[in-house]
Amino acid sequence: MTLLVLGAVAVMLIAALAALLLPDLLGALAAASVVSLALAVLFALLGAPDVALAEAVVGSGLSGVMFAMVLRRVGYQPADEEETGHDDAA
Amino acid sequence: MTQQAILLVLLPLIAAFTLTPLRRCNPVIARVAGPAVVVSQVMLAITLLLHIAQLGPEAVGFGGFSIPLGIAFHLDLVGMSLVALAGVTLLLLWPWTVESDSAEPSLYLLLLAGASGIALSADLFNLYVFFEVVAVASYGLVAAPNSGIQLYASIRLLLFSAAGSALALLGIGLIYNLGGSLSLAHLGQVAAQDATLFSSVEGLSAFTLILIGLGVKAELFPANHWVPEVYGLSRPRVSGLLAGLVSKLALLILLRLLWQLYTGTGAEVILLVTGLVTLLLGELAAFRATRLREMLAFSSIGQLGLLAVAFSMGNEAGVAAGLLLALNHLLIKPALFLYAHNWRAPITALGGQAWSTPLASALFVLMVLSLMGIPPLPGFWGKYLLLKGVLTAPTLGMGWVVALILFTTLVEMIYFMRLLTRLYAEKSVQPIPPLSRRHYAPVALLGAGLIALTLGMGHVSTHLEQGAAQLLDRSGYRDRLIPASLRHPVNHFQTHLQGTARQGGHP
Amino acid sequence: MTPDLLSHLFSIASAALVAIGLFMLVRSHYLLRALLGLTLMEAGVNLFLVSVGYREGAAPPIAIDGQLPAVMVDPIPQALILTAIVIGVGVLGLALALALRLHQSEGTLWLPRLRRRAQSACSKEDAA
Amino acid sequence: MTMRRNLASLIFTVGLGLMLVSLMQGSHTAFPVEVGQNINAAGFADHGAANLVTSVVLGYRGLDTLGELTILFVAATAAGMVLGHCPGGSTPPVRGGFILATAAELLFPFLILLGAYIIIHGHLSPGGGFQGGAVIAAAYYVPLLAGSGRLFSEDTGSLIESLAGVGFIAIGLLALWGGGEFLAPLYSHNGAPGALLSAGTLPLLYLAVGLKVGSELASLLARLGGIGMEVDDDA
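^ inputs. structure came back:
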């Protein structure tokens, strides 16, 4: 149990860092979905199955789909000259 | 009778839910349904207000559960007046001219439902939910004209506000962790028994998180960067609503939180300092502004800083002053934004514009004078009462607060006088009428409200003092909300519930 | 592992999530990335709330065969998070709709560029 | 602009510092969590719902749930307003291949059934209106993604939405009518605890929540995907 919790927390934090640092937006989006998924596992372990279900369906499912749809329609625009070098979140 | 208070939230909700299908059936009815519902809501609010004014504040529970378990409303003078004022303000700024298939009327109704909930609810998380209703409706209203740059303003507001909400929710979680409840009255009782509970580091950081979160809408430092951009880009009606109404709702939540939970914990000092910094930065930025809209946006920040300072004084005079200044600002700011819609040019190019429409300009001058605090207008009495409140505040009666308030008033006077003298300089070559046709009625009515307030000051001030006393009355609030069997002490409450326990529970 | 250490672990993890999210929100120059930061921030807050209701060795507050477990976690924070999650997805949907429309009309989602355009739009309007 | 960046960083630093300090200090036993504990003790008797989270969501804090439905409604309305009036702006739906379309066709009834199950068992087991509503929204979206139709018109969507919203309020007002308080539990002692037909009006409330959440999320998804509903808007 404790090991599972520690593992989920570790996965979550690593995925969050990945979302922050990945230069590719689609990759960052995938990482954010992993954060939600790890969070859902964590909720289930913490005695909150209702919240775990909601987080899994809404957090990693629907939110991710919405993001992906918008990203598909918008397309990831590379920065033009003015913006180059500013995108890196870090 | 008072059970009907929930209808103040439900009426606009039902109307908003059914407006879209109704529009498909009968567009004419759908067009008048919105304003009609708002009018009936205002009438209900006034009926309840008279009831409360006669019989004193009352608590209304929901679901048949006593307070620590369920949610309750607390109907007092200030909350109920705010509901009525919100309805009237929305009616004055109602989008009469939009196309028939616009969603804007629905958003107005939802804003009203949220505002009523905020004004009346006595539960921390419930307040958060209603505040989100108002916030999301305001993103929609800013974005409504659907042109690119207004969408950017809406996104700006959304990013700030949503981040603030997340921080506020974190603060609410901390408070729940500390006090074990979400009801303001019950938390107040817990705090009264353990004075160190909310003055601890966690307690004060919970307050600060909520202050930052609500400070986005209350235009308090450091969360007010969106203000000049959004007010500069969005339509005057919407700027007026955000500055006039929504900011006051956020402040009311802070006021209730501060004086029910955080009395004597040092949280009032946090609010005082935040207010002073906001006041100073706002007025100095307004001094440097080159355009009327920008000046109004920054002056609004300054005014809200002043309100925060007033509300951080724990005495009747201070809170009453804050209420009066809030009322003054609520009447004036929307009207000024409507004026600024046509006077868009840099202030230096507005020379002599006042002569083009002497009557409208005279009303403009009256409003600006009240904002500055020139006797006998309400703004003067507000500032006068505030200084009185500062000087008699128990621990905060510090000279430098007075000095800072006087200094910012001076700055305010300088930049507003500069504007007025320019407006009344020699006659202009190209007169621009300040108001477009459809803006005349709301401005005239708001001006009439201001004049009525000035004339009825004696009567109003007793009501304000009564309202302030109710806001500061902790034991009365608790007695009305918490059922008698659970009141004193907390242990009694625990044993009572152990009686009803069937199985389970925490060991 | 003691319960105290475990609860500290959750506090630190949620603080880290909120911090990463806030940092992304404040520092990103691309709108969609800022919104991604917002979702991370909300996730951190949700984690904190769940950990508030958690008790060591407690079961979910659900009766099995008509019998409630002897020790249960606190159901209130769970109800709050359910609400917060739905609010979050609503706000995110609206934000993405705004972003989509903004992209259709302005052709870019780079915030510095949009800000410059907003400023010039203001002064252009003034000149008119 | 540099000033604004610096100030933004300042907010960030102050907020972060505060949070870290407070969260690290916060031990989770500072004060007994009374209210939750009492709900654990009394909730079963009050509502007859096996899932206490459901009692809290729909019973003790039903007003919050109404507010939350409202927020979702505001967001969907505003998103519809923003995206509804952009003729020519929407991309045509992507036509998936035959296999994808068939899979979506097969998946659709399964997902709808799953969503319905989650909703009507919300008072017994984990899940409920929100989760089930989200699954139903996804069910509508999958065939759209595959390009195999099954659009539901904006009329139907908004009708379901408003009926569900008004239904929730009406169930609440029913109690008020009977002399009780808004959203008081009704008939909570009919039916054995743990049975499908138990917990009085709670399952009905969750049904309303599920329908409203489902239709609103479906409309959000369709608008963001640029498919379905915009078609009749553009026409």
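The two ends of chain D are 44 Å apart (CA to CA). Residues 85-92, 228-235 of chain D have pLDDT under 50 and may be disordered.
thumbs up if we can close this ticket
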